[in-house]
Specification:
Immunoglobulin-like; 5-stranded mixed β-sheet; elongated; 12 strands; alpha+beta; 2 domains; binds heme C; single chain; binds copper (II) ion
Length: 355
């Protein structure tokens, strides 16, 4: 029997269309219902905005060149086309003209210099920006095929869903990202917030974002990194400062190891978890599980998606995932653990307590 197709949370399309501007604006109003289509033409953060304006400038110059060259070509084609009364003589041949030679050398050089300087200016202003005092620091660790977000200032570890405070102009709280890889090359890209930044093993790269409106922004790994590269999605939740503080507070809590009066199914599920290889790959703070190979599960249920955005985090999907991750994300690095249906049921009851 064929597996029912899950609604895909990936980009509806990565198409860069001008028509996406009004829809992105509209979408930002209902953003908590549905994240807007990521488009470089709807920037919501300073680095993305600078890149957007540079892109428009470059496009305008290229459009100007296109119109002039194309116009002259069309003009010449019509003006000098073969007419009935043509006497077949060769037109006047002109060899060497200093003015023409100079014009078609100097003008393109000037254009290239202008494009180079404006690009260099934007690169400088994005890359060399210094973190202000109130900046949030996040260490992004890219894994095949999921994201780890560490907040050293708060002792919080999030997975696949990055939460940051909104950054008001005048009183900005930008987020500075340190990008590391646990395995191969990846690339961090949230089109509406910043340009792509490669993530390379044994190298430390940086980027930053200062999202100016509340909402959810979609991103994706932008460097081919293996089988499930296309399903290495990420979501950035831009929240009010109060909501962000609440989220941090909630994420700092550890899971209770053995609360009194606990549902027996949950206790049984915890035993399954603690006596299976799960603990070697996953951390649940407050328990013996301290694996680092897979995502931290301490606050699993606070995430909206599973498997780096491939499916919504529902009880059915969670069960399907733990039963056989390959059914959802073929080739991913979590093995099926061959649990019995009863073990699975107990385990899911336990995982559902991880809020
Ligand atoms: C060999 C290491 C390994 C073992 C053993 C393992 N996992 Fe995983 N697990 C992973 C990896 C890697 C991922 C991330 C997969 C991805 O998104 O590509 C993952 C993802 C998950 C997720 C989804 C997390 C999220 O937020 O997307 C859950 C839930 C999970 N594992 C539960 C379990 C449970 C329960 C067990 C034990 C029955 C287990 N895992 C055993 C490596 C492992
Ligand atoms: Cu990747």
């Amino acid at each position: 029997m064929r597996r029912k197709k899950e609604p895909h949370l990936a980009f509806p399309s990565l198409m860069i269309t001008l028509s996406s501007i009004p829809s992105a604006v509209a979408a930002s109003l209902v953003i908590h219902v549905r994240p807007s289509t990521p488009s470089i033409f709807a920037p919501a953060s300073t680095p993305a905005d600078e890149i957007y304006r540079l892109a428009i400038f470059v496009l305008a110059i290229c459009m100007g060149i296109f119109v002039i060259v194309g116009g002259l070509l069309i003009y010449a084609t019509f003006k000098f086309r073969l007419r009935g009364k043509d006497d077949g003589r060769e037109p006047a041949q002109i060899y060497g003209s200093n003015q023409v030679e100079l014009a078609w050398t100097v003008i393109p050089v000037l254009i290239v210099v202008v494009l180079f300087l404006t690009t260099a200016r934007v690169i400088h202003s994005v890359e060399d920006a210094r973190a202000p005092a109130g900046a949030i620091e996040v260490t992004v660790v890219a894994h095949q095929w999921w994201w780890e977000f560490r907040y050293p200032q708060y002792g919080v570890v999030a997975v696949n869903e990055l939460h940051v405070p909104v950054s008001n102009p005048g009183d900005s709280t930008p987020t500075y990202l340190t990008l590391l890889s646990a395995d191969v090359d990846h690339s961090f890209w949230v089109p509406q917030l910043a340009g792509k930044t490669d993530i390379i093993p044994n190298r430390v790269n940086h980027t930053w974002i200062d999202p100016q409106s509340i909402g959810v922004y979609l991103g994706q790994c932008a460097m081919y990194c293996g089988t499930q590269h296309a399903n290495m999605l990420l979501r950035v939740y831009v929240e009010s400062r109060a909501d962000f503080a609440r989220w941090i507070h909630q994420q700092r809590a550890t899971a209770a190891a053995d609360p009194p009066g606990e549902d027996p199914a949950v206790a049984a599920g915890r035993r399954v978890f603690e006596t299976t290889a799960c603990v070697n790959c996953h951390t649940i703070r407050g328990t013996i599980a301290d694996g680092r190979f897979g995502p931290d599960l301490t606050h699993l249920m606070s995430r909206e998606t599973l498997g780096a955005g491939v499916v919504p985090n529902t009880p059915e999907n969670l069960r399907r995932w733990v039963k056989n991750p390959d059914a959802i994300k073929p080739g991913c690095d979590m093995p099926a653990m061959n649990l019995s249906p009863q073990q699975l049921t107990d385990l899911i009851s336990y995982l559902e307590t991880l809020r």
